[in-house]
User: What shape does this take?
Amino acid sequence: MKDLEEKLKNPVWHSLNETHNKFLIEYDGVQFYKPDICIFGAFYDATKTTKALNEYSKIAERFFLVSEGGIPITDDNNVVLEKKINGCQLILDKQIDTEITEEIVLLTEEHIDEVYDLIWLVMPGFYQKGGFNMGKYYGIFKDDKLVAITGQRMQTNDFIEVSGVVTHPKYTRRGFAKQLVAHTTNEIIKENKFPILHTNKGNSAIPLYEKLGYRLTRDMNWWLFRRK
Assistant: This one.
């Protein structure tokens, strides 16, 4: 459990050292995902972030450093802090017992464009099309189109992050998100791993996650930078 707790404090770092190592780009001890996969980075030593941010900004216009408590150091001549998102982390350690009434489909590569378009419709700005390769995605179809999804993002040998919880605005309030989160969570537990979630503090979805059994564990800050 101690090993898990250490990984949860720096989930991007440990994902890139384990399950997602093939997506790793490293600059002197600061680690990033390849930008066509995900624009997240992580660090332990903030004194090394300045050079790393400058280098990564050459291949990614906007990107995040994710940390529990550390404050990255920047070179304002090359990289600008656009905003700091005060986030939080949640975890669950048991199966979710909820009724699944919808047909939930494991999505394949033929759905990559539909996933991308739906996420950008609801949450534009950060999802990369290559993010589909980070884990499994599940969806609900209505009227012959994909209207709700849930995916997997950061992963280690111990946990898998539930992410990409998105429903088309015309299909909300039908319980799709609840069922997709429950299904994705239970699939993760079947792999003997812990499901985790990240969101911003105050997100209206947090009560839903807590009702499903997730519990808040820690703050998780998202530092959004852009190339100057």
